[in-house]
From TrEMBL:
<dbReference type="InterPro" id="IPR035952">
    <property type="entry name" value="Rhomboid-like_sf"/>
</dbReference>
<keyword id="KW-0812">Transmembrane</keyword>
<dbReference type="Pfam" id="PF20401">
    <property type="entry name" value="Rhomboid_2"/>
</dbReference>
<feature type="transmembrane region" description="Helical">
    <location>
        <begin position="99"/>
        <end position="122"/>
    </location>
</feature>
<feature type="transmembrane region" description="Helical">
    <location>
        <begin position="134"/>
        <end position="154"/>
    </location>
</feature>
<dbReference type="InterPro" id="IPR046862">
    <property type="entry name" value="Rhomboid_2"/>
</dbReference>
<keyword id="KW-0472">Membrane</keyword>
<feature type="transmembrane region" description="Helical">
    <location>
        <begin position="21"/>
        <end position="38"/>
    </location>
</feature>
<protein>
    <recommendedName>
        <fullName>Rhomboid family intramembrane serine protease</fullName>
    </recommendedName>
</protein>
<keyword id="KW-1133">Transmembrane helix</keyword>
<feature type="transmembrane region" description="Helical">
    <location>
        <begin position="160"/>
        <end position="180"/>
    </location>
</feature>
């Protein structure tokens, strides 16, 4: 009975975030496929689906979509955990449409801004010409945006520390590493914070102290 109830709770949770788990299922399939590719074939295959400068110049819509269907590094399980911890709660809270809007805004805008910065660096001799073919795939920009927008789900006493922690986690690599992907991640966080209008009308964050008081009363 306990196992049945546990499975029912898991299914209820998954059913409440269909977009998250469909996306995760797609990533599982593509990750398995990637493990069956030879290293040389994989590199060329992913480069054609990468949001690098060359591909964005010729096939922007195709690569912006296809790049979000592959995981850089081929490790699916950590993303299954991250999707369940961040994406699923965000989708259950915002609804699939608004959650998807946050993901799309973070993924697309952060990609364009970071690749634009890289192009500027190439033109000013700060990056090699070969950087136009740099591999840039994955779902981390969308994830960073969702991590940031979840700050509005947290009660006010804890919201500021959470937001500060997010800024530190994504800001430190930008200061120390200063790569275009570090810029992309930090930009995604700012976009997530800027999605404040999308959270209007959603359920008010619960204060744990208030919940405890109700139970005790």
């Amino acid at each position: 009975m306990r196992i049945t109830r546990g499975l029912h709770r898991v299914w209820t949770y998954v059913r409440g975030a269909p977009g998250t788990y469909v996306w995760l299922a797609v990533l599982f399939v593509t990750t398995v496929a990637m493990h069956h590719m030879s290293p040389d074939f994989e590199a060329e295959f992913l480069r054609q689906r990468s949001t690098n400068i060359r591909e964005l110049s010729s096939n922007p819509v195709r690569v912006l979509v296809s790049s979000a269907m592959w995981i850089d590094g081929g490790r699916w399980l950590p993303y299954a955990v991250l999707y369940s911890v961040f994406h699923a709660p965000a989708e259950r809270w915002l609804g699939t449409a608004r959650w998807l809007a946050v993901c799309a805004a973070a993924h697309v805008l952060a990609t364009l801004i970071s690749e634009g910065a890289l192009l500027w660096g190439i033109r000013h001799g700060m990056a090699p010409e070969s950087a136009v073919n740099t591999l840039d795939i994955g779902v981390s920009y969308a994830l960073a945006g969702v991590v940031a927008v979840l700050a509005y789900r947290i009660p006010v006493p804890w919201r500021a520390p959470y937001a500060a922690a997010v800024l530190i986690v994504y800001g430190v690599p930008l200061v120390t590493g200063r790569t275009f992907t570090d810029l992309g991640h930090f930009t995604s966080v700012l976009i997530g914070f800027a999605c404040c209008p999308l959270v209007r009308g959603r359920a008010r964050p619960r204060n744990p102290k208030e919940t405890a008081a109700v139970v005790e009363g």
